[in-house]
Write a structure and sequence with these properties.
Blueprint lengths: L21 H6 L6 E4 L3 E5 L9 E5 L12 H25 L3 E7 L9 E8 L8 E5 L6 E5 L12 H9 L5 H19 L7 E4 L8 E4 L2 E4 L6 E4 L1 H9 L7 H11 L9 H11 L1 H9 L3 H16 L10
């Protein structure tokens, strides 16, 4: 999404940034990505143009998380706005790029706690179709990553946005807030002492199966809001942290063989996994602040397992 509010990847927003409150700043005329006001929302250009013309429709009511939260007339107005923005992107891309193929429209909401829709332009293969092409390795059947994007340089450290979320949360108790702040500080101290064998390069910042787009057997890695230049191991840690969600040793072993690098003997991996664990809390804290009961239950479960020291306790997938 345009947000990242999709959490704390290396290119996360700093406290006080308009990206921390996209809808509020849009309503106040302070969101620089807004193209124009529509009937039920705001048409906005994507922060990161990994697909030229990528745009987002933001609802114009803070606190609305799902399409079903709206009364029927406004639902229809939001969907009409999505159609209008999609058609505008389609016309612009057709006029400017002969390789344009179509637009795809999506309403996701897996991470950001506000209603929004994605407008994805698609281009013919081989020319700007995707910033990352995931292709099958003929020997292993796994995917390999080929970057064709010049990403932004890291502007703030990992967990920067989580720190801001914790500081301003109305739901967290003082005890939990203190524990999270101390844990973030300890992990960042350990992180800054690490040596990264794979060096620095393009990283997605939130690479996990929920951010893949499938078309039959063809797969693309989407949601590049947190893309940046940083230590490559940050993306690998996400796969290993997936044991929280049922990822098996067999699956991790297959991924490791396909990728060609095994970080499991590297002392920095537990630090990055612990950082990833915390990274997942941000959206649940924001949803708990709005009174979402499902997110609140999951947040309490994750906090309980983290404070107990468990590194393998199962978490629900949202």
């Amino acid at each position: 999404m345009t947000s990242s509010q999709t959490e704390d990847g290396p290119a996360s927003a700093k406290a006080g940034d308009w990206r921390m409150d996209r809808i509020g700043t849009a309503l106040r005329g302070e969101n620089p990505t807004v193209l124009r006001r529509l009937e039920a929302g705001f048409a906005a250009i994507g922060d990161v143009q990994f697909l030229p013309g990528y745009s987002v429709l933001l609802i114009d009511e803070p606190g609305v998380q799902r399409l079903s939260d709206l009364p029927k007339p406004k639902r229809l107005a939001f969907l009409a706005d999505m159609d209008q923005l999609g058609e505008a992107v389609e016309r612009a891309c057709q006029r400017l790029d002969p390789d344009f193929r179509r637009v795809n429209l999506e309403i996701l909401g897996n991470t950001d706690p506000f209603l929004h829709a994605h407008i994805w332009p698609r281009f013919e293969s081989g020319r700007r179709m995707d910033p990352v092409q995931l292709v099958s390795n003929p020997r292993s059947g796994q995917v390999w990553e080929t970057a064709v994007l010049d990403p932004p340089t890291t502007t703030s450290g990992p967990l920067a946005q989580l720190s801001a979320t914790v500081a301003r949360s109305s739901y967290l108790t003082p005890d939990i807030r203190t524990w999270l702040t101390r844990t973030i500080t300890e992990l960042l101290t350990a992180y800054r002492k690490l040596h990264f064998p794979l060096g620095t390069g393009l990283i997605h910042g939130d690479a996990y199966p929920g951010n893949t787009l499938w078309d039959g057997t063809s797969v693309r890695l989407g949601d590049w809001d947190e893309a940046a230049t940083g230590p490559r191991e940050l993306d690998l840690a996400n796969t290993h942290q997936g044991v929280r969600f049922g990822r098996t040793p067999t699956a991790i072993e297959a991924f490791t063989r396909a990728y060609g690098h095994d970080p499991r003997g590297w002392p920095g991996l537990p630090v990055l996994i612990a950082m990833r664990d915390l990274h997942t809390l941000g959206s649940f804290i924001r949803r708990a602040d709005t009174g979402d009961p499902h997110a609140t239950r999951q947040l309490e479960h994750r906090l309980s397992t983290l404070r107990s020291g468990s590194t393998t306790a199962r978490w629900d997938i949202f």
